[in-house]
Amino acid sequence: MQLAVVNDGQPEIVQTRDNEQRKQIQSLVQLARSKTFQTGNLQATLQEITEVAAKTLSVERVGVWLYTADNTAIECINLYDTRKNIHISGQTLLKANYPNYFQSLEMERSLAINDAINDQRTQELAASYLKVFGIASLLDAPIWLGGRVVGVVCHEHFGEMRQWTVEEENFASSIADFVALAIEASDRHIVQAALGKSEAKFRAIFERSSMGIGIADIQAKIVDVNPRLSQMLGYSREEIYGKYFIDYIAPQKGDLELYKQLVAGIRDRIEIEKHFRHKNGQLVWTKLSISMIPGSNGTPEFFLAIIEDITERKQTELKLRASQAAAEAGNRAKNEFLATMSHELRTPLNAIMGLSQLLQQEMVGALNEKQQEYVSCIYSSGEHLLAIINDILDLSKVESGKEELHLSTVSVLDLCNYALSTVSDQAQEKGLKLISEIDPQAEICRVDIRRCKQMLINLMTNAIKFTPTGQVSLEIKKVPEGIKFTVADTGIGIDNSQFHLLFEPFKQLDSQLNRQYEGTGLGLALTRKLARLHGGDVTVESKLGEGSRFTLFIPEQVDLITEINLSQEDTHELSSLADQVVQKRILIAEAEENIGIFLQDYLQILGYQVEWINHQDKVLATIKNFQPSLLLLDTQFLANNNIRLLQALQAESELLNMAVVFMGVPKNDCPELNNLQLEKYDYLVKPIRIVQLESILLHYLGD
Predict the structure, then answer these.
(1) Distance between the two ends of the chain, CA-based, in angstroms?
(2) Residue 227: enclosing H or E segment and its boundaries?
(3) pTM for this structure?
(4) What are the pLDDT digits (tens) for 95-120?
(5) Are 388 and 423 a contacting pair, CB within 8 Å?
(6) N or C: more exposed end of the chain, with fewer CB within 10 A?
């Protein structure tokens, strides 16, 4: 039985098993009341039995095999193939050729064999029978008649191996009992006795079922109920006989139409959820399954109702929904809080990192060795804090479903080189060897460039962090479905019992690691979520003490563009700016005072003519008066979708031959830019790094 598991899986498994059990009960009741037994036609009866069994257990073939007269073999007298919808017979299996199988048939109640090819009881059948037909699993129930085994009913499952349940084993044994009854009924002298046994079999199923069962005539009047249904409703059998199901349930619009379809044969079964009213007035939530039992002439004669009490399950579902609603509300509140706090968190960092960079450059005076050490510590601590803030905000966006990918076609080699160059200093500081191996066929991929770089750097930084000695490698391989980026290391490795914690946010593997290694535990969680946004995933292989391999899979996109046009970052040194700044004017439109001061001081030291304004309404007037070559514009001035300012800026920049560079949070987080042709503009992410600013200055103001 194949199960779909959601969350912890338990409610889904229980519900699936209940559905299967309900289906099995209906099938057995159908056989027990079948009129085919009365004809004494063994082949017709076996055809009905094998078809019902195959459809109920969802197997490809069901066969009935009987011992030959000399007891030296079993012969197939009826086998139903669901794929071809045909019945065949005639194949023989000699007892001498398969001694283990025949011995098991006579010793065991049933053979529920998951791996038929390798199981000791059936492996001798592999070459001549199982592999020929592609049979993976078997559920065989011996047929007992007159105190001895006279044959077997064989349920054959193809494809992947199948785990048989206890309920399925019980059902198979019941099918074998029906075959025995059919064999008895084929003798005209004992037809009535066999029918009596059939009725007794039905009565046993009816009385002992864990589900409520009711039978009503064609006018919907109740003619029989089992003890479980009486208990479920709180009435005795005598109180229920002669009543109608409508006396205990509230009819709904559309019910009558469903019943008409059932009687007309348009539907085989109706399955609906209904409230039954208990004798004490309480409501019982049930799953109601109704099917028809035909009479001897094939016309509908009875309704068979199987009623399952799902009150407890429904109550659990309601609690889960309430918990989920509360969790979603909490998550929304968290995301709103983080969005609000993102500006408050970044603003002081902008000043800390900007001003510490000025001090590092010694542009406002020389620093002694200890002061340089302190300033470097301030800057690196700011970088670390910024990385944590960015990870938290990114994870929050992905979890809330607000993250949108901006896909473009990029060079795989460029992605690899970018990631390697970014982490090379970290590896060098630890004395680690950094290597790469790129499949020549892995030329391009379609990804969100920023996010793909982020995923690769997260994986490589993580590998370096947990590798004391040895090497870290980046292996890229083209596969039919897409591209695999594998980051391998020779580090401390991970115990496989802790794999489930790796991709959980804020989780480190144990307290010792928490003390020894820095980190919030967000990197891998965010990387996997971003990979899945791309339609891929991140997987891990690791052995404690021997290293780890993390593989990022990016699937092939159907609309790949074959021509790559990537802009290259300028890597010139700051010293080349000295002779290129004469008469170059820069206007800074920045709301935050600390950032404005940092940018103005730095650019004036370089020799540019600089003006700084911190009010939105002064931007256009200052542009006309100052006539800058470059405008550095804070995206806060674009708040509330200031279309007029955007349009005016576009006109002014074209008129005055002025470059516009926006400054703010990552581009994806700034919806005000969606209406602009971004290829005409550049962007600086805050906190602003001097090396990024240098690149902008060289690009727009260099000769």
Answers:
(1) 73
(2) helix 227-233
(3) 0.38
(4) 999 999 998 888 888 899 999 999 99
(5) no
(6) C
